[in-house]
Amino acid sequence: MTPWLGRDEGNDDRRRMRRHCSRLVRDIKVPVPFDAEALCREVGSRIGQPIHLLPVEMPADGPSGLVISGARAHYLCYDAGTRPLHQQHIIAHELGHLIAGHTTGHVEEGEAGAPVLLSTLDPVVVRQALARDAGYDRREEAEAEIIADLLLRRAHSWAPEHTWRVPTDAVDVVARIERSLG
C-alpha cells in the first residue's frame, strides 16, 4: 500500500493522479539540459508570480527545501549543501507544489525586507513557512513528487538534437565506463 493511499484505493487512483499531474505540466517548457533559473521563470510566468531561488544551508534534521510565498513573489529555498542532482530534485519538488496550487507559508513583504530575511532564514520566517507542512497532506506530497519526476525526466531526456555535457565531477567515471565498454 502506498502511504498516501487509503486501504481501498490502489492502482487506479495512482494512475489518475499521474494523469492529473501530467496535465498540469504538459505545457511547461522544461529546459534541456536542466536549468533551475529558466524553469523557475517558466513556472513563474505560468502561475503569474516570479519565483526566486535561494540556496541556503538547511539543517540536517529539517526540510531540504521549502517555498515561502509573498504578495509579489515566491521564494524557493533549497539546500545549498547537497549535490547538484539532489538540488534539482528539491527545486522540482517545490515547483510541483506551486504548479499544483498547494498552499504554502506566507510572509508579509516590505519593499526589500523579504529577500533579506529569507537570505538569512530568520527563525520566525522559517516557522511560518514550515507551518505549511501541517497543510500539506500525503497526497499533496505525492503530487509534488510526481510533478518533480515528470519535470526532471523531461529535463534529462535524451533527444538527438541535444548535446550532452558530462558534469565535471563525473568526467573520470564516464571515461572509465567508456574505456571498459570499448
TrEMBL record:
Domain of life: Bacteria
Protein name (database record): IrrE N-terminal-like domain-containing protein
Species name: Phytohabitans maris
